[in-house]
Amino acid sequence: MTGWIRSFALVPLMLLATTSSLSGQTAERDLPYGSDPxxxxxxxxxxxxxxxxxLFVHGGSLTGGDKADDDYGAVCAPFVAAGIGCANVNxxxxxxxxxxxxxxxxxxxxxxxxxxxxxxxGDPRKLFLVGHSSGAMLVALVGADTAYLGQRRLATSAxxxxxxxxxIMWDVELEEALARYGRRRVEDAFARxxxxxxxxxxxxxxxxxxxxxxRPGLPPYLFLIAEAEQEHPPVLRTDSAFVARARALGxxxxxxxxxxxxxxxxxxxxxxxxxxTFALIREFVRQFSEDAPGVGH
Length: 297
Known about the structure:
- By secondary structure, the chain is an alpha/beta fold.
- The protein contains 11 helices and 9 strands.
- A hairpin with a 2-residue loop joins strand 1 and strand 2.
- Helix 3 crosses helix 4 and helix 6 crosses helix 7.
- The longest helix has 16 residues.
């Protein structure tokens, strides 16, 4: 069982944020949405008013990663060029901050953006979550489990859509071990292991998987799966199951595979001209922005 798959009073704003502007676009760095040094986001917005905003959540197995990493530092650029606001979000990391600090921070960032985007020209009714790797698990969970946004007095309907990129939605190996060996043996092995110590208990670990929170009334989901990551880990198997079960409950959900892409090239190439992966996200944002309350038809 050792092979189980791992899931991947504020200081004044003006003292912490740096701002730059180009052709009406504005970028603000290290805006605080909480008191911890990791509770910071970079917010880039286009010129104009009424635009949708994406909150991007980085990967790193919940123990590493940063919005300034090579994989993620430029992720907002294509969104802003397409007229979409973009918040690149850092969050508290394990083991210093055990679960569920990471999901709580994603929800806190959503609440901050909703409260602050209008003064920057954005529409607070048009918020989207996009996450990569363990960040994909986080955005999928925050969109499905009502507890996290509920702590911020928000419903998951505050999100117009969720785009997870490159993460499993449950631990296939552990679920198979439960079926084969029974709860007691799996729980004993879980308690002896260190891979999942940040969760504290088997129940907390099981509960953090998004597929356990499927229900009617989810925001729309679009899963993006790189060709090279379909089977190992079983991203296609778990994401397609999420989609099928979500649809059976009356939700809008879909997945797309990304030909020729790997786990990392899928996100690294978003800013390339005419990138097909970015085009999928852009169209998803456009479609469900028009469906926002009071917007379009």
